[in-house]
Every structure is written in C-alpha cells, then in structure tokens.
C-alpha cells in the first residue's frame, strides 16, 4: 500500500481523518495545558495533533502538519 500524503489526508472527510489517525497512526506524545490535552500522532510522513477538552470529555479539533512550531512543542529538552 502506498504512503498517505498530507494532501490526500486533508481531502478526506473529518470522519475518515479521525479513522486514519486512530487506526493507522502511531501515538507519539501528549501535552496537558490547563483543561486541554494535546495528543500527537504520526501517520506516514506527517503528524496530526488532536485537541481534547478534558472538562467536556470531547475532541474539539485536529491539526495536520509536517514540521514547524506545533511539532517543536513536543521536543523535550534535557
């Protein structure tokens, strides 16, 4: 099976995007800021950040990207 590109991912429906993330994605890390949990997943050659509202127990958004500031948030400095 060929790799899914970021472009191909973005043209999927929301339902299909979530299905790809949760069935084929690899969980990388999570960050908690106040009542929001951000979970980072890798799918083929790009990343998806899922935003989860802890207080409402609900997914409230997702962002897909290859590099940049969002990815840098998950870097751990020693």
Write the layout of secondary structure elements.
Elements: H1 6-10, H2 14-24, E1 26-33, E2 36-43, E3 46-53, E4 58-65, H3 69-72
Number of strands: 4
Mean pLDDT: 91
Structural class based on helices, strands and sheet pairing: alpha+beta
Q: From the coordinates shown, what is the CATH architecture?
A: 2-Layer Sandwich
Distance between the termini: 38 Å
Classify the beta-strand content into a percent band. 35-45%
CA radius of gyration:
13 Å
- What does the oligomeric state look like here? single chain
> Would you list the SSEs in sequence order as H and E?
HHEEEEH
The top-level CATH class is Alpha Beta
Number of helices: 3
According to CATH, the fold-level topology is: Viral Envelope Glycoprotein, domain 2
Helix amount, in percent? 25-40%
Largest β-sheet summary: 4 strands, antiparallel
The total domain count is: 1
Strand order of the largest sheet: 1-2-3-4
Shape: globular
Low-pLDDT ranges: none
List keywords for this structure.
78 residues, alpha+beta, Viral Envelope Glycoprotein, domain 2, four-stranded antiparallel sheet, globular
